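wait is this the right file?? whatever heres the structure
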């Protein structure tokens, strides 16, 4: 047993089924130990993709993802993926190799202060200097990643520490997933929150990622059914209650959901497991009524009251809060006129989208592509949605219908991350369809990871909305500076489908609306990674239009906010 064996044995005991990685000299002992403990190595083509796959695994399953990279440039290549997990609050264990510890500070090849680079984007980071303490550090890492608000952690382990022979050191005990490990709600505050919701005329419940990490889906659905409080979801909570449920009104984003604009009329707003960040307008008057009474429930107590004063602040796990609330609802609450009002707006919003969804124009309208994709996807399908202007239409038109199956980028907005996310989701649910929706700009970042998917028999389908440009930036530059002053945005026509075919996958090229559905069906039936390259129109999304308006106002004010 060497240090690498202690590490991999510990990973196995923590339930790790695979690591995401890219080979390198510093981590060869880990690879060797993975053979002994039957841990699968999903070897990517770039370290950033390996980090994003670990993040995607956590988002799709609710369990920690693990990635392992070599030191030096392998470590630095993974930083963007690590930062993405940090801002989203995903439990990821990042392990980096390093040159031998006895060469530290002597000018060794690829020697960096790796901890200094990761500390700002992790919950906890350490370098192991004693091979016998690897099990201890590993237990601490998992505990830190999962406690409170989840997040990434990091271990740097030098090559000599991994290679050194060790005794059969036991793995220190780690608290299990028991009710005692959750943060319970103050019962008096629960009573106060329930009284506010019961008395409200226009209540709203906004569920965020905290509801996903606590696996609160069943309790959340029962809560809205008993209280008849309209639900909106955002972040990783998307799909905990289906957008098709009559009490779930979809995305808690007024830019992409007309119903969410009614937040400004709500008199009581319960924010469950979601920070009052930019996604909720920092709790400001553009999104919320200034007189609205706010209930905020968050496992991370420092988030309560950030940016917006609250009436009731409860530091608790989302699921345990809902359990306590359900215990106080003996009979279902009656429907309010507010519920009918929101339903009518939802129906009107769907009618508004029909013009784009039914368009026969060439190039294809983004909403028409989304409609055809929606028609072929079963409820259990996973959809990973990338960044870019086309993808805002996908966020509008593709419903979230199952937990862990509607995956977005998060606060870092990491362009190109959707392909690694999709690969991780397919690994987690190999029998269910997985589709990645991306633009031609986003595809270029990690398109070669379809070779990874091919080698590991993970047949995802990548749908490209190809407007031959970095769409959002082109829309912004055109609006602000004119069509003749667009710089760095034109990509030209690239046959990405042919690239995927050359890798060994399945390719489809679509130019007309009636070609979309047959191409999608062939791609899903191909049984290997597939690319459906669809030529679309560049139609400014609501997000692009808002960004243009804000930037234009800033220009007109001379830069004053």
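ok assuming it is, sequence goes like this
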């Amino acid at each position: 047993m060497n240090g690498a064996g202690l590490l991999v044995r510990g990973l196995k005991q923590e339930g790790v089924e695979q690591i995401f990685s890219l080979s390198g000299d510093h981590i060869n002992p880990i690879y060797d130990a993975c053979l002994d403990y039957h841990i699968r190595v999903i070897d990517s083509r770039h370290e950033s993709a390996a980090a994003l796959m670990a993040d995607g695994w956590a988002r799709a399953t609710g369990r920690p993802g693990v990635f392992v990279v070599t030191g030096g440039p392998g470590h630095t290549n993974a930083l963007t993926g690590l930062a993405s997990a940090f801002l989203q609050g995903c439990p990821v264990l990042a392990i980096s190799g390093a040159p031998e510890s006895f060469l530290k500070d002597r000018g060794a090849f690829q020697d960096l202060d790796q901890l200094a680079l990761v500390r700002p984007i992790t919950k906890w980071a350490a370098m192991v200097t004693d091979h016998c303490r690897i099990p201890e550090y590993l237990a601490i890492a998992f505990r830190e990643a999962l406690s409170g608000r989840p997040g990434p952690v990091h271990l740097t382990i030098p090559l000599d520490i991994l290679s050194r022979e060790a005794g059969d050191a036991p793995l220190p005990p780690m608290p299990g997933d028991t009710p005692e490990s959750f943060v319970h709600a103050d019962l008096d505050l629960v009573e106060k929150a329930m009284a506010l919701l019961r008395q409200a005329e226009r209540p709203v419940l906004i569920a965020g990622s905290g509801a996903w990490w606590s696996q609160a889906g069943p309790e959340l659905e029962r809560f809205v059914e008993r209280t008849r409080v309209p639900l909106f979801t955002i972040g990783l909570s998307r799909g905990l209650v289906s957008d098709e449920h009559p009490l779930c009104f979809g995305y808690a984003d007024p830019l992409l959901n007309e119903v969410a604009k009614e937040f400004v009329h709500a008199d009581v707003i319960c924010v469950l497991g979601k920070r009052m960040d930019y996604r909720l307008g920092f709790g400001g008057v553009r999104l919320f009524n200034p007189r609205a009474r706010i209930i905020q429930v968050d496992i991370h107590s420092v988030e309560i009251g950030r940016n917006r004063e609250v009436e009731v602040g409860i530091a608790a796990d989302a699921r345990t809060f809902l359990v306590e609330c359900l215990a106080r609802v003996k009979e279902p609450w009656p429907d309010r006129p507010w519920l009918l009002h929101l339903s009518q707006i939802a129906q009107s919003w769907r009618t508004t989208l029909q013009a784009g969804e039914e368009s026969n124009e060439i190039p294809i309208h983004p909403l028409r592509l989304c409609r055809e994709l929606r028609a072929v996807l079963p409820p259990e399908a996973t959809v990973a949605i990338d960044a870019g202007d086309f993808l805002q239409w996908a966020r509008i038109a593709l419903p979230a219908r199952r937990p862990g199956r509607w995956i977005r980028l998060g606060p870092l907005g990491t362009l190109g991350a959707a392909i690694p996310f999709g690969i991780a989701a397919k690994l987690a649910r190999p029998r269910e369809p997985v589709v990645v929706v991306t633009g031609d700009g986003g595809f270029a970042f990690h398109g070669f990871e379809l070779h990874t998917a091919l080698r590991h028999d993970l047949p995802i389908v990548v749908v490209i909305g190809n407007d031959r440009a970095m769409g959002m930036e082109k829309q912004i530059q055109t609006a602000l500076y004119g069509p003749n002053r667009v710089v760095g945005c034109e990509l030209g026509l690239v046959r990405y489908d042919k690239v995927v075919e050359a890798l060994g996958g399945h390719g489809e090229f679509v130019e007309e609306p009636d070609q979309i559905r047959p191409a999608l069906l062939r791609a899903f039936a191909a049984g290997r990674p597939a690319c459906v390259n669809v030529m679309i129109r560049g139609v400014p999304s609501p997000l692009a239009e808002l960004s243009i308006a804000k930037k234009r106002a800033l220009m007109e004010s001379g830069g004053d906010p």
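The mean pLDDT is 94. so i think its the right one actually
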